[in-house]
Amino acid sequence: MAAKEVGAKLKHKFEMPRRISPLHDAFHHITSRTDKTDTLDVKYINAVKGRGVFAKRTISKGQFVAEYRGDMIDDAEYQRRRSLYHPMCAAFMFAFKWRGKTWCIDASQEDESFGRLVNDEHRGPNCRIKRIDVNGKPHLCLFAVDDIKQGEEITYDYGGEDCPWRTQMTSPTVSGVALDGSCPFLSANQTFDAAGPSDSQQMTSTTAHDMTSGC
Ligand SMILES: C[S@@+](CC[C@H](N)C(=O)[O-])C[C@H]1O[C@@H](n2cnc3c(N)ncnc32)[C@H](O)[C@@H]1O
User: Fold this and answer.
1) Are 112 and 70 in contact, with CB atoms under 8 Å apart?
2) Measuring CA to CA, how many Å separate 174 from each of 42, 49, 66, 157, 165?
3) What number does the ligand 1 atom closest to the CA of 184 have?
4) Which of 7, 9, 82, 191 allows an S-S link to 213, with CB 3.0 to 4.6 Å?
5) How remote is the CA of residue 120 from the centroid of ligand 1, in Å?
6) Cα dist. 36→19, 23, 68, 115, 205 in Å?
7) For each of the chain's 215 residues, which pLDDT tens digit applies?
């Protein structure tokens, strides 16, 4: 093969978008503390639901979507903050079990991250939370459980039985919104059990399950 041809082939190879596994994609976004701004958008839906996260392009089943980012705190600090917070802020506390203890990701700070703005859907969610351990620390990540179409809202099941909005009607208004304001919504404590042994590996993945108290 002529040198010119080899050069063209190599150029093509390096210009091709590289496919990375969902786990490595999650790892990348966890460690760089970034969101998929090319894939996701935040929009205001209505006064009941507030904002939501939407797919800007098709997302394939199994892909990493977003991390539920925030402050990781232990149970004592979780209880302390919960007693101090307005219910609107407590709505952003995500409690879970890890290594036999209760922990919480407190996402009450408006930090412009997407994971904290993903709404609940218990009948047909298109994502689910999995725990990814990076450098011995758990991270709660959303992965697509179905192919998600462009324009579709990103959702997962918060768990529990008593989310008030599940029995209320909402209007379907959707429009763009800026990410500002602070803790604008109702009380919702999502608790799920991501218990199980976890070594201090560089990167492990465990499916989070048994969301219990919810909402
Ligand atoms: C973690 S926040 C999600 C982001 C929130 N929509 C916002 O704009 O900040 C959880 C709150 O969103 C609202 N929410 C979540 N899922 C909902 C749903 N399916 N219907 C109505 N409201 C929902 C509830 O007020 C809940 O307390």
Assistant:
1) no
2) 10, 10, 21, 21, 17
3) 9
4) 191
5) 7
6) 15, 14, 13, 10, 20
7) 566 676 666 665 656 566 899 999 999 999 999 999 999 999 999 999 999 999 999 999 999 999 999 999 999 999 999 999 999 999 999 999 999 999 999 999 999 999 999 999 999 999 999 999 999 999 999 999 999 999 999 999 998 777 888 887 554 444 433 333 333 332 334 444 432 222 223 455 444 323 334 55
Q: What are phi and psi of 55, to 5 degrees?
A: -80, 125
- Residue whose CA lies nearest to ligand 1 atom number 4: 117
Pocket test for ligand 1, best of 85, 104, 106, 119 (most atoms within 8 A of CB): 119
Two structure tokens written together for 117: 């703005």
Angstrom CA distances, 200 to 139, 141, 142, 175, stand at 13, 18, 22, 43
Sheet containing 64-67, strands listed edge to edge, beginning at the edge strand earlier in sequence: 64-67, 137-144, 127-134, 203-207
Closest C-alpha among 131, 116, 132 to residue 70:
116
Ligand 1 centroid distance, CA of 55 (Å): 17
**pTM for this model (two decimals):** 0.79
Which residue shows structure tokens 């809202």? 153
How close is the Cα of 30 to the center of ligand 1, in Å?
Answer: 23
